[in-house]
Amino acid sequence: MADFETDYLIIGAGAVGLSFADTLLDEDPDCHITIVDKHAKPGGHWNDAYPFVALHQPSATYGVNSMELCPDRVDTHGHNAGMYPLAKHSEILAYYSKLMSERFIPSERVSYHPLTEYRGAEGSEHTVRGILSGEESTLNVRRKLVDGTYFQTSVPSTHKPAFDIAEGTRFATPGDLPSLWQQADNLPDHYIVLGGGKTAMDTAVWLLEAGVSADKIGWVRPRDSWMFNRKFLQPAHARIEGLIALQEGQFEAAASSESGDEMFAKLGKQGIMLRIDPDVTPSMFHYAVISEGEVEMLSTIKSVYRQGRVTKIAPGRMEFGDASADVPENTLFIDCTATAVPFSVRDKVGPMFDGDRIKLQLVQVPFVPYSAALAAFAEVHFDDDATRNNLLPPGPLTDTTATYPYALMVNLMSTGTLAANEKTDAFNARSRLHPTGPAVAQMIANNDPKLSILQNFRETLQNCLPGVVKLGMAAKAIHEAG
Ligand SMILES: Cc1cc2nc3c(=O)[nH]c(=O)nc-3n(C[C@H](O)[C@H](O)[C@H](O)COP(=O)(O)OP(=O)(O)OC[C@H]3O[C@@H](n4cnc5c(N)ncnc54)[C@H](O)[C@@H]3O)c2cc1C
To answer: Is the CB of 44 under 6 A from ligand 1?
Structure first.
């Protein structure tokens, strides 16, 4: 006989598992939920993040449906001035702790087991192990196992670098940088940021804002990246025009382009997509969001190494396979090479609902918490897996400019499918995690004059649809070829 009983066993107390649990609690007032996680506190990978990390998208659509994450006002200073707040590391962790201690636990319908690893199942009996005690216990899961670990988020402090580090090399993760003040009499002469993603950008901005001059920073950027311009991604209730312009721009550019690169170049000209170096055509697109101010700052770093990935670092030297580069002897190398979402997980895309298991994936790329909340809604309000899977097919995790039109096309299809279903349409209209749902519902209720923008948008969509699908299908073939 099992030690405990529950209706839903959720693996992972990260953004995904917690968003699913939050919506499930509201939509199914009778169920009992058990959440296990290896971390000591709720929040998943945010527990391991560097202290100066912040969301790169406004907090308005992050977290869980039942609780706002940040105040509803614009920032007044810094490179996010004039835009809506981006929750900081401490705010995100405090938010998830509050959710657990003020909503989940007092509901008496959630059992939370931190520092606990999920081990596997035999039939409906599942085994978990306390990481510090080493003790195993069993749970009888009456309804379903919910896997909230699909994204396998990887951050610098917990990943293992894939390059050699020679003895005597000064090496750090971004999380080590704020303690540099403790080495005030032994500071590095030079800094090399390793990696081309958002963590590397955050790190370079941090160094520049901390007073390190741009000529003391080198940057190993194997691939350059396009990024969304944050000013187009402001909360819909405040600035729906930006989001509509972003969507319209994407559909028009996709419909009139023969390749992803051509589409991004058009979006770059309109300022919808940003890049750091106007002379380099980026091949990477990881859905990062950035401000024009950050891009301007980052473009002051002129020492950029594009020989590929480093294979070895040593005092005064970096190797890139057969090539190498000399750097000042007293250089601090900063590892930003962890890929936040390892895109290799795309191979594992499969139906979300599969009998007594739910594998939480993306319904709308890249809206991670929204997709998990919608999955909980579908679990409760539709009777069979075939219906749920037809409504919520997983979106692809594309990572290049060539393959992104595939994700754009799938998002468009999914938007149509969800809008055509009365129940999911109503859910979107009240989900704070949905990028436009509640704002549009409010506009309709108030007969807002801005509704005319939406009418124009629908016409643009109709006109662009064939072209978006053509480019999307070509991108799908590239994505599937690997
Ligand atoms: C620096 C950074 C910034 C980001 N910024 C944004 C942003 O602004 N907006 C956005 O939408 N996304 C952002 N992301 C993407 C981010 O990955 C997702 O938003 C989200 O946090 C992922 O949550 P998750 O629950 O999938 O993963 P995680 O946070 O990794 O949670 C999964 C949890 O599962 C647990 N687990 C795994 N295996 C087991 C097991 N066997 N037993 C028990 N527990 C287990 C882990 O301990 C972990 O706590 C960012 C990512 C990074 C790295």
So the answer is: yes
Angle at 215 (CA atoms; ends 209, 220), nearest 5 degrees: 90
The DSSP letter of residue 359 is E
The reply to whether CATH 3.50.50.60 applies to domain 4-153+342-391 is yes
**H helix runs in 299-450, sequence order:** 368-381, 385-391, 404-420, 422-430, 437-445
**Whole-model pTM above 0.85?**
yes
Mutate to test the pocket of ligand 1, among 9, 37, 359 (most ligand atoms within 8 A of CB): 37
| CATH number for region 154-226+287-340 | 3.50.50.60
Average pLDDT for consecutive 10-residue bins of the chain (482 residues)?
Answer: 94 98 97 98 96 95 96 93 96 98 98 98 94 97 96 80 97 96 96 96 98 98 96 94 96 98 98 97 96 98 96 97 96 91 70 97 95 98 98 94 97 96 98 96 93 91 96 96 86
Is the minimum distance from the CB of 20 to ligand 1 under 6 angstroms? Answer: no
Distance 152 CA to ligand 1 centre (A): 7
For residue 411 and ligand 1, the question of a CB distance below 6 A is answered with no
